[in-house]
User: Which sequence fits this backbone?
């Protein structure tokens, strides 16, 4: 399989967390010739949205996604409204950055709850509540199915099929306002992955996140691997995405408390670039 | 919902691992009034199959499953043949114990491989290879879908739907020779769980394993919780199984290196019984 387009590599700031603030990550991308960046909102707030937007424009970077909206379920109606309000702010921020999408990590079970179906209904209601506002702002919402091991505490949307069922329910005509983010780490295991990527198609795939699944994996959240160090057939999944019509960025998002977060971020980015060419 | 039938609680020896050998577990079940037991093969081999079968019969216990066959995928044809041979021995052992089923933990990716589809094909071929022998021995084979976080290293069958697709392919008439084990820990997160339990029906559900999903979970294998300590709605899932026609045991299988494995097994069994009545 041909190497991926070198101009379509994006850096998610989770990859250099703890070492680089957003200003440094923007400069890092520019210095290493990366054209895409995906900020997390805590770093965005630290830098300030206006300042970040100016720096990103000044370097000609594309924001491949803003991380993140979502986290809809809550115990009380008041909390749910506060979550909705926060999502509307996230839409505004994504708009200010000209982001290609706002990533939705939808949230898990409210504290003390075992009502998974109820949480999923709250997610559906939450997305429905913010969709008109996001559509008006021109910010596509990307539902990111998270690995089932994060169903309780981070996201109760756990397969691409489930995410696409939500898209069908809330935006049946695939208007471009609602779609999915395909993060290989979360979905690589799914026996229906190829079929569901085909089902999603060009109109519903808004983002493609990469990293690798390590064997063994020592932490449910913070032990992701660099592309090529694990068992995910990244090229095969890229092939499926391309055949579905996806032509966008591959965004490197590596949560790695014990390894990559401890290294010099310039080295990390250099290795990302090399592995992207070789393994993705 | 009514409490579960107290005569339908079974102890999987994984729950008292490290403290009790099989002889002790058999005596423990008898002492605490449990009617079911599910041995792991390493403990069975330590005790000896004939001696174990006699002790189990002497106490009037029912073997709700033998753990485990499976582990089919391998790099070489020779290794795959050795795996098949081991599965045939497991069938013999299950027969000797009068086990209600042989649990199949099907195996993950061969070392160094990223070919998940290939591993899944090897699993299918492996089950097909042992099915006639198991059928003749009167030992039902129970495919256990494992949590997707164990797809790489333990089992590449990761949803009930996928397991049932295998059953449809290899035993289309649902003869009773091939079915599934529903372990709540592995499948609780699945948005299609209720529908797939309904699809499975009485003829294909051979086992029901219980424990709980802890928040947070600190290990991908050995941090399972006692029923009631986590977020799984155990009663709801039992209701789905009963509506599908399942009338068998609930088998407690708790891998818990840092907690339950360190406690006095008699205390563990007492708590299992109490939680079974209250939470399951």
Assistant:
């Amino acid at each position: 399989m041909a190497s991926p387009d070198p101009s379509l590599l994006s850096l998610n700031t989770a990859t250099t967390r703890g070492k680089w603030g957003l200003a440094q990550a923007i400069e890092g991308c520019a210095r290493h010739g990366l054209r895409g960046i995906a900020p997390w909102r805590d770093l965005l707030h630290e830098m300030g949205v206006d300042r970040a937007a100016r720096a990103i424009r000044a370097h000609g970077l594309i924001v491949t996604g803003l991380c993140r909206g979502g986290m809809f379920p809550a115990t009380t109606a008041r909390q749910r409204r506060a979550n909705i309000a926060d999502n509307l702010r996230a839409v505004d921020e994504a708009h200010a950055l000209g982001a290609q999408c706002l990533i939705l990590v939808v949230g898990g079970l409210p504290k003390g709850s075992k009502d998974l179906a109820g949480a999923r209904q709250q997610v559906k209601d939450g997305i429905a509540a913010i969709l008109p506002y996001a559509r008006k702002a021109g910010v596509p919402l990307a539902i990111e199915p998270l690995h089932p091991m994060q169903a309780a505490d981070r996201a109760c949307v756990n397969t691409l099929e489930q995410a696409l069922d939500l898209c069908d329910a809330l935006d049946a005509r695939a208007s471009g306002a609602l779609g999915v983010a395909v993060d290989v780490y979360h979905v690589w295991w799914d026996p229906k992955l190829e079929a569901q990527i085909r089902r999603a198609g060009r109109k519903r795939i808004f983002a493609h996140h990469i990293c690798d699944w390590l064997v063994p994996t020592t932490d449910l959240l913070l032990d992701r691997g660099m592309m090529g160090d694990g068992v995910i057939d990244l090229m095969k999944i890229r092939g499926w995405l391309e055949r579905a019509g996806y032509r966008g960025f591959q965004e490197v998002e590596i949560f790695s408390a014990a390894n990559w977060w401890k290294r010099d971020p310039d080295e990390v980015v250099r290795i990302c670039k090399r592995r992207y060419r070789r393994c993705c």
In short: The interface with chain B takes residues 109, 113-116, 120, 147-149, 151-153, 156, 158-159, 162, 188-191, 213, 215-218, 220, 230-233 of chain A (CB under 8 Å). The radius of gyration of chain A is 18 Å.
